[in-house]
């Protein structure tokens, strides 16, 4: 197994990956909060970790991939303030909260399927693990790192920080974090400004509530991931991932909860995907530049010139490193679609190549470059560059400009299967068979008219037909055997 290096947010450097119990790898990714449609920023995270999941499997690991569903206990503010988002949505639509959960969970799965994401090994829900969360909270209280105030349980950050480093994930000291937090009001029941809720007392109107040793209530946002990750992956596991926006609060609190229980760091490698921007501006609802996956596919948004295919968007995301900012623009998406089409067309050509007796290319070296790119912190942009080298080689071989043996052709097919389809998760998109059949007949009819014009030496008409077909996106290739075309 070749060495794999990945960037660890916790240590802020690139490290060689070593599984705790090889070949088993424990991978946990914070999943969606299902009270609304999944947004594109979430999709980038899930697509990135789908690629990581796929590559770990490809190089020989057995991966237990856990991606949770948050379906309870999520207030509007990170400071344990505001209404419960599920209950608020349920009241607005006059349905049960779990109807909201079901609706948006199904929608999330539909989007993941459209992007060709593999399902995780386990997809636990917060509501399905209330008992585990209560038991973990009880243990944190027993260890002295939490306190109860009128039915609500708070984590004591300053007490925890005396034994451990609360700001280790963001490389900030407690004093810095306190400076950026407002003072407690006289009515605030917390002991410290950074303290956060593990269990929240239910109000009389609260719809989602469960019994606990502290009374009826619901879990805080952060405790669910600590409880579910430890249940399915153990007290210490290999990789924990999510969006960069979760780093400062959610993941910082996860570490604190788990370390308070077990007195050891819960995760060896923390990985975070970066933000999305649109034309250089951070994507957000308030900026008016946020769009949902469905809008991206249909083009039904003021900022979109057209709809973009799921595979074109997935390929677009692979052209930027997961740890870098990804900027959406119509120009970039359209260029990506053309690149994806070139990649797929080259594969079609590869399947028809005729082998030569000798070779002029080192395909094994090209294959190793693909592995080197992925082993360097899953560097998909470099991988894509190498894959376009395969496109050049395939097209040049088809044009007779270089020669490939059957072993070369077979290895190129393996590169496509391993890296394009298996690791990057791309697939050929289905065309409407009836439309394709009609298009074939129409273009071939026009080419027959053009060929007749050439025979009659009516070259102005022949050139005009060729130019207009080119403008329409139909590329014509004239050979001694006749004319061929492709979109």
Describe the structure.
The protein has 487 residues and is an alpha/beta fold. The chain has 3 domains: 269 residues, Rossmann fold (3-Layer(aba) Sandwich); 147 residues, Anticodon-binding domain of a subclass of class I aminoacyl-tRNA synthetases (Four Helix Bundle (Hemerythrin (Met), subunit A)); 54 residues, no CATH class. Helix content is 45%, strand content 14%. The protein contains 16 helices and 15 strands. Strands 4-3-9-10 form a 4-stranded parallel β-sheet, with helices on both faces. A hairpin with a 4-residue loop joins β1 and β2. α4 crosses α7 and α12 runs parallel beside α14. It starts with a strand and ends with a strand.
| Basic shape | elongated
Distance between the termini: 41 Å
The helix tally amounts to 16
Cα gyration radius (Å): 27 Å
Largest beta sheet, briefly? Answer: 4 strands, parallel
What name does CATH use for the topology of the largest domain?
A: Rossmann fold
Structural classification? alpha/beta
CATH homologous superfamily annotation of the largest domain: HUPs
What's the level 1 CATH class of the largest domain? Answer: Alpha Beta
Q: How many domain regions?
A: 3
Arithmetic mean of pLDDT: 92
- Strand order of the main beta sheet, please? 4-3-9-10
Low-confidence stretches: none
**What is the CATH architecture term of the largest domain?**
3-Layer(aba) Sandwich
What portion of residues is helical? Answer: 40-55%
The number of distinct β-strands equals 15
């Amino acid at each position: 197994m070749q060495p794999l290096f990945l960037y660890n947010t916790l240590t802020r450097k690139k490290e060689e990956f070593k599984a705790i119990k090889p070949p088993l790898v424990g991978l946990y990714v914070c999943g969606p909060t299902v009270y609304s449609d999944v947004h594109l920023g979430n999709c980038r995270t899930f697509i990135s970790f789908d690629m990581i999941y796929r590559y770990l499997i490809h190089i020989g690991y057995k991966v237990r991939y856990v991606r949770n569903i948050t379906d309870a206990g999520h207030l509007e503010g990170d400071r344990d303030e505001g209404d419960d988002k599920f209950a608020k949505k349920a009241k607005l639509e006059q349905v049960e909260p779990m109807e909201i959960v079901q609706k948006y969970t199904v929608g999330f799965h539909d989007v993941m399927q459209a992007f060709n994401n593999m399902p995780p090994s386990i997809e636990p829900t917060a509501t399905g693990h209330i008992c585990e969360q209560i038991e973990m909270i009880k243990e944190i209280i027993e260890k002295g790192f939490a306190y109860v105030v009128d039915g609500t349980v708070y984590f004591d950050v300053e007490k925890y920080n005396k034994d451990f480093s609360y700001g280790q994930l963001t490389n900030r000291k407690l004093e810095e974090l306190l400076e950026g937090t407002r003072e407690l009001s006289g009515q605030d029941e917390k002991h410290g400004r950074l303290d956060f809720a593990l269990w929240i007392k239910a109000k009389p109107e609260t719809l989602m509530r469960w019994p606990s040793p502290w009374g009826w209530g619901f879990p805080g946002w952060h405790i669910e991931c600590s409880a579910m990750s430890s249940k399915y992956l153990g007290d210490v596991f290999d990789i924990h991932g999510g969006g960069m926006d979760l780093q400062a609060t959610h993941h910082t609190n996860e570490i604190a909860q788990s370390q308070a229980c077990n007195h050891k760091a819960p995760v060896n490698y923390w990985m975070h995907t970066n933000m999305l921007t649109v034309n250089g501006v951070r994507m957000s609802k308030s900026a008016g530049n946020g769009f949902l996956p469905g809008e991206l596919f249909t083009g039904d948004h003021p900022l979109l010139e057209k709809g973009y295919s799921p595979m074109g968007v997935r390929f677009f995301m692979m052209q930027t490193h997961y740890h870098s900012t990804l900027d959406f623009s119509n120009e970039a998406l359209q260029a990506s679609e053309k690149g994806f089409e070139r990649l797929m067309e080259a594969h079609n050509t590869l399947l028809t190549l005729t082998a030569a007796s000798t070779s002029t290319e080192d395909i094994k070296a090209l294959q190793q470059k693909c592995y080197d790119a992925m082993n360097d912190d899953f560097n998909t942009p470099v991988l894509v560059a190498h894959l376009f080298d395969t496109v050049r080689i395939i097209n040049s071989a088809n044009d007779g400009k270089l020669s490939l043996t059957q072993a070369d052709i077979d290895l190129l097919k393996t590169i496509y299967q391993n890296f394009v389809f298996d690791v990057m998760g791309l697939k050929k998109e289905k065309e409407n068979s009836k439309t394709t059949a009609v298009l074939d007949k129409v273009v071939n009819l026009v080419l027959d008219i053009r060929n007749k014009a050439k025979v009659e030496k009516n070259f102005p008409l022949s050139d005009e037909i060729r130019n207009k077909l080119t403008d329409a996106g139909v590329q014509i290739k004239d050979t001694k055997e006749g004319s061929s075309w492709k979109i």
